[in-house]
Known about the structure:
Elements: H1 2-14, H2 69-77, E1 91-99, H3 100-105, H4 108-119, E2 123-128, E3 135-143, H5 144-162, E4 177-183, E5 194-198, E6 210-216, H6 218-230, H7 251-254, H8 259-276, H9 279-286
Antiparallel strand pairs: 1-3, 1-4, 2-3, 4-6, 5-6
Amino acid sequence: MAHNQDNRQTRKRRKPYRSSRPTSNSHTAPPAPPSSASSSYPTPQTHPLELGLSNEPIIDNTTKSSVDDTKVIHFLSKLKPRGFQTVSDDPSHITIIVSSFERSLVDISTVKQVLTEKFQIDDVVTTEGLPGTIDVLVTVYGRMLNIAKAVVFLIFQLNTKVNNLQKDVFTLKSSTYKAHLLLKNGEEVQGIKYVDIAHLFSYEFNKGAYDVFVQGDLTSIFNFILHCLDRKWNLETSLIRLEPMFGIHLDQALKSTSRENIDIKNRARNTLLQYLYPASRYENIQS
């Protein structure tokens, strides 16, 4: 009996020891993740990831004019001057003022071709100043009636195609067409919705040259141009000196301050200082 007990003890000692902790050389497989039904582990992807967000396509929401070029040309071809307006067949010209940026957006050669074919004008000439000059002069040459129609069509193009930043809708009867004309005068306006005459800073070197801003419908601007040509208010652009400068009007800075206003301002200033500082400090500030 004692011998059998010794054999059992020997077998127990010779039994290999199995560690529950893996060694450094162990290559045991990692535990399998729980099933997707009971776990938040991500499912392995078998295809490339795709972005869930993308840029929205840019939509061209440019509002077009209610009338196209063909209808405007047809409208102008039938346009007649007012009964009291005299029209001459003598050669003449008139100049509109555009910015250098507007000029860069307008193909003058194409404009000249269209105006020549549709309105039988003689020529379209642009005048630019030194580098840095903002204004560009666009002069249309021909007979009075043809000039007025051609310039009105050019104004239509500038308002509806170039300067229509607000996506406004223009019609043949719209009174929101705007233009700047280079004239000697702009008085005795008839039928124009709005007119403003400015002796611009860049034109102060040119005596008698004015930037005349007009706003109205196509018919009113047409008759206004005829009126200016009849009064010979147009200018020869070769005599105009364009300068690379511009002016900003600050109304308060341009007005002289009266003595009465200076006294009121000083009293208000002293009252404020007395309220903010003690008497001793106020006297030092005053001194």
